[in-house]
């Protein structure tokens, strides 16, 4: 059983939000609204992002956060949420290391890990100057996927292969060729990434991909093409939409403004209009008499 993939098989579309700490996971867990039809709308899972986890530790997004730190965060998230967790595993490290990573994250209760088809010096895919970034050969990446599949103990975790062809200036044919090869190697899902402002390329990919692979879950990360609604991505063929970095991006300017306000006014009174009341933060402290979920 796999919480995430079983739901997708039932035809449910999934919307995830990033968490880089227990407090941000609390936001993912507790945020909900009622839409115009009176239906409750909430996030369906938590994305552990290499960008926001690295940055929250003061590190560049170059595969420096080790598996133990990721497992610590996953344990913290689990303390407050039972929602499926997807972990960004960058390139999956060396293929000699990848099996151990899959095994550790499966035991940690993770529903899926995403590995991107780059090798060597990996940087965040959204940076503009990316001439250092190299795409892995199809053969080597398929080997890595096969190693990961062999390392799985049960059916509780899936490997999602993230295709960087559009990021690295290649076209639709390359992306589709890779998708087919990665699925044949055992990938449970495909993530097609892009740093265009327009969603046209990923939508074109989704339409062709879903003709050949209607039952393979398709993921996207609309960090750059963010003017398109999740519903439109879902109706274009995507099964999972990941909002990958927004809680850290929301927190940073709020913290910076507060810090500057204290310096400017030499007291915290003025900052008080933008920050939560002391009593409100006290009400967030977990009740020791209530067991965690
Ligand atoms: C991350 O969240 O670390 C990702 C997604 O890899 S993105 O930054 O949009 O490339
Ligand atoms: Mg990443």
TrEMBL record:
One of its GO terms (molecular function) is phosphoenolpyruvate mutase activity. Gene3D superfamilies: Phosphoenolpyruvate-binding domains (3.20.20.60). Its EC number is 5.4.2.9. SUPFAM superfamilies: Phosphoenolpyruvate/pyruvate domain (SSF51621). The keyword Signal does not apply. Keywords: Isomerase, Pyruvate. The keyword Heme does not apply. InterPro entries: ICL/PEPM, PEnolPyrv_PMutase_core, Pyrv/PenolPyrv_kinase-like_dom, Pyrv_kinase-like_dom_sf. It holds the Pfam family PEP_mutase. Coiled coil: none annotated. Belongs to the isocitrate lyase/PEP mutase superfamily. PEP mutase family. This is phosphoenolpyruvate mutase. It comes from Pedobacter cryoconitis. The lineage of its organism: Bacteria, Pseudomonadati, Bacteroidota, Sphingobacteriia, Sphingobacteriales.
């Amino acid at each position: 059983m796999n919480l995430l993939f079983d739901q997708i098989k039932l035809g449910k579309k999934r919307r995830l939000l990033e968490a880089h700490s227990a407090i941000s996971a609390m936001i993912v867990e507790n945020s909900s609204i009622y839409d115009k039809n009176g239906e409750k709308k909430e996030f369906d899972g938590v994305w552990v992002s290499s960008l926001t986890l690295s940055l929250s530790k003061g590190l560049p997004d170059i595969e420096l956060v080790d598996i133990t730190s990721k497992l610590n965060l996953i344990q913290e998230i689990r303390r407050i949420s039972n929602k499926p967790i997807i972990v960004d595993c960058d390139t999956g490290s060396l293929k000699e290391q990848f099996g151990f990573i899959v095994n550790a994250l499966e035991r940690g209760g993770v529903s899926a890990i995403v590995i991107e088809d780059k090798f060597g010096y990996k940087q965040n895919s959204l940076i503009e100057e990316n001439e250092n970034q190299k795409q892995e050969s199809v053969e080597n990446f398929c080997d890595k996927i096969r190693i990961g599949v062999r390392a799985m103990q049960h059916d509780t975790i899936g490997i999602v292969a993230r295709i960087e062809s559009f990021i690295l200036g290649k076209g639709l044919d390359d992306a589709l060729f890779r998708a087919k090869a990665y699925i044949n190697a055992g990938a449970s899902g495909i993530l097609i990434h892009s740093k265009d402002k327009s969603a046209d390329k990923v939508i074109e990919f989704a339409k062709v991909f879903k003709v050949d692979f209607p039952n393979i879950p398709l993921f996207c990360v609309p960090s750059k093409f963010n003017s398109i609604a999740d519903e439109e991505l879902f109706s274009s063929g995507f099964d999972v939409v990941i909002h990958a970095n927004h809680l850290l991006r929301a927190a940073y300017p709020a913290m910076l403004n507060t810090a500057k306000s204290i310096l400017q006014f030499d007291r915290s009174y003025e900052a008080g209009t933008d920050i939560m009341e002391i009593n409100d933060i006290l009400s967030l402290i977990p009740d020791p008499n209530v067991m965690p979920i």
